[in-house]
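Q: I'm building a small set of examples for a reading group on sequence design. Run inverse folding on the following structure and report the sequence directly after it, with nothing in between.
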């Protein structure tokens, strides 16, 4: 049965296969796909070709309905979000929050490429909340408590689990304990692991740990001795085999300044210059979620979800002497000074 684009209009499979690339790109008008009744009769006799034509129509409709519109009105095709075209880089657009009273004024990053489901169960562990108290129950950090329960993701900072074996990025996820995104990768033998995601990394890309022959592709882990001068890296080890300790936050990176026989000179984001052994591993690129600095909380409840309780300034508290001696002495000295300066001048007889 021939595929119908419009009521009483049929498509020619022959023209579909000859111009499939233009169909996917949307460069030809839809009227050029109309066929004659003879072509429709020929299509009915070729069920395999008709099924392929129907599949192409469904793909075109899905691509048209899955477009993402960012804050400035430009469109990003869903094929980019699905990992098609590994050389392309997704922009860090910011989407304005809802205009309701509870969320007005907030900004958040577009999370269309992030996975919203549950993490891998064997790669997480529940975190115990201390609420700012020590082992004896005394409050040591004020304004902490409550919030949503968190699970620690076991992130592979070493990147030495299966060296020289390629791994496919399955999805990108958020980690509640860090600002950068993490990527779930699957090695060739089926092993799953979490790693820090590089900026621009998309599902479907292939990354690896290159020890023998360094491959300077985005997201690959290489030795610092093989990095050219000027390359940006993150998740840098301080000692070989210890795991990445430098430049792990969102948007962080270190720049290779100079290479020596056994060490490499790096420039950190803070401007510090640091010598690191040349056999230490580092990931090519910069940490993901560069737009994290522009995020703003949408409402007061979002701060409570993060485990932050309301903060009260000390000078606004009740000046009780035995509980807040410094504040009480400050208030008493201020009041006595005010009385001396505002007292009326001495009266005279004349």
């Amino acid at each position: 049965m021939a595929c119908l684009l419009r009521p009483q209009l049929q498509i020619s499979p022959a023209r579909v296969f000859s111009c499939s690339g233009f169909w996917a790109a949307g460069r030809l008008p839809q009227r050029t796909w109309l066929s004659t009744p003879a072509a429709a009769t020929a299509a009915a006799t070729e069920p395999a070709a008709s099924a392929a034509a129907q599949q192409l129509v469904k793909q075109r409709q899905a691509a048209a309905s899955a477009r993402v519109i960012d804050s400035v009105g430009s469109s990003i095709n869903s094929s980019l979000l699905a990992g098609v075209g590994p050389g392309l880089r997704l922009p860090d657009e910011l989407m304005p929050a809802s205009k309701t009273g509870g969320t007005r004024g907030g900004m958040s990053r577009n999370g269309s490429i992030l996975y919203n489901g549950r993490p891998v169960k064997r790669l997480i562990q529940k975190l115990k909340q201390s609420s700012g108290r020590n082992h004896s129950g005394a409050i040591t950090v004020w304004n902490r408590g409550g919030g949503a329960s968190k699970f620690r993701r076991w992130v592979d900072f070493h990147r030495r689990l299966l060296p020289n074996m390629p791994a496919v990025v399955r999805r990108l996820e958020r980690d509640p304990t860090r600002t950068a995104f993490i990527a779930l990768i699957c090695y060739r033998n089926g092993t799953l692991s979490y790693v820090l995601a590089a900026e621009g990394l998309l599902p479907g890309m292939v990354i690896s740990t290159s020890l023998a022959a360094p491959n300077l592709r985005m997201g690959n882990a290489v030795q610092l001795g093989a990095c050219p001068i000027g390359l940006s890296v993150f998740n840098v080890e301080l000692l070989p085999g210890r795991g990445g300790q430098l430049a792990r936050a969102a948007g962080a990176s270190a720049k290779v300044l100079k290479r020596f026989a056994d060490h490499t000179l790096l420039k950190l984001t803070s401007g510090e210059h640091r010598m690191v052994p040349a056999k230490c591993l580092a990931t090519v690129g910069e940490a993901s979620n560069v737009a994290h600095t522009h995020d703003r909380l949408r409402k007061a409840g979002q701060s409570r979800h993060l485990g932050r309780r309301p903060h009260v300034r000390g000078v606004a508290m009740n000046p009780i002497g035995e509980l807040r001696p410094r504040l009480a002495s400050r208030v008493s000295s201020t009041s006595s000074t005010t009385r001396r300066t505002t007292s009326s001048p001495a009266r005279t007889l004349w």
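Residues 1-43, 64-94 have pLDDT under 50 and may be disordered.
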